[in-house]
Amino acid sequence: MELVLGTAQLTRPYGVLGETSRHTAGDSPQELFEAARNCGFAGLDTAASYGDAEEAIGSADHGLKIYTKLDPALDPEESVYQSLRKMGVSFLDIVYLHEEFSGSRSQKKTLQRLHDALRPQVGSVGVSIYSEAEFFLALETPEISAIQLPLSALSGTFGPDHLAQASDADILVFARSILLQGLLLIPWRDIPRRVNFLTPYVEEFQRIADRHHVSYPDAAVHFTKSHSGLAGMVIGANTVANVTELAQSFHRGTPTEFLEEFSHVPAPPPHIADPRFWS
How far apart are CA 150 and CA 142, in angstroms? Predict the structure, then answer.
């Protein structure tokens, strides 16, 4: 299983905590990527819409795989070549659609162009999804060989059965939203008012972790890591200290007793952990 550094917060405030005073400026891309490589990260996950992230990646010497997402406003070929140019690379290991996957004619045409015309520049073609409907559409689409989906301790949409079906279809699955935009790591009493409906779920997660003397990063990372069949985990960070801490959590021994107890906690309604509904 690969550890992949998410770059949504590389050059800008990101997520629900980015709107609060908890946001802090990050370390330089060069420092961040060097730390990631030294800690065992295998790749960088980015997107044309992540501020200046692609340019920041291009400014650094990193030697890591590149996973990016199309700019929906551009022709797919134009988007790919723009990303290649910004990041100073000749190959993108995975390119994802960065929009809801409906399996429309236009989306299938885009996927076909990525798969065929852009094959020398693109490794795998994928979709970044939220829902089961999108997941099953992706399994039926022959051009798709990678799926990125949310899989956190509070995300009950996807589980072992989904990963097994993707494996049977020879599709790589990468988990994201593992830390739920950092909400699983802050004290539950400090959950921002805008998402206070998450408070009881975060509180339960943290109380079980405390009972078993497991750090919140270890608990969050290993919940996701316990799902066999994942090709990788995308975890965002913008400081060397956070990169190091998360890598240590990833490589640390499995907190078996925490996972056993937490497995009996009912999953919240799917929309609870979906940032699209955090208005």
Answer: 22
CB 67 within 8 A of CB 80: no
In tens, the pLDDT along 69-92 reads: 999 999 999 999 999 999 999 999
Band (119; pLDDT cuts 50, 70, 90): confident
Q: What share of the chain is helix, strand, coil (3-state, %, to 5)?
A: 40, 15, 45
CA distances from 41 to 34, 61, 204, 243 (A): 10, 14, 30, 9
* Whether the Cβ atoms of residue 2 and residue 233 lie closer than 8 Å to each other: yes
Distances (CA, A) of 219 to 34, 99, 152: 26, 30, 10
Which of 107, 227, 222 shows the shortest CA–CA distance to 157? 227
**Residue 104 to residues 32, 70, 107, 111, 151, Cα–Cα distance (Å):** 38, 16, 5, 11, 25
Q: Is 77 exposed, middle or buried (0-12, 13-18, 19+ CB in 10 A)?
A: middle
In the block, tokens 């004619």 appear at 105
Cα 253 from Cα 70, distance rounded (Å): 36
Task: Give the list of residues 6+ apart from residue 66 with CB closer than 8 angstroms, or none.
Answer: 43, 44, 46, 57, 87, 89, 91, 92, 93
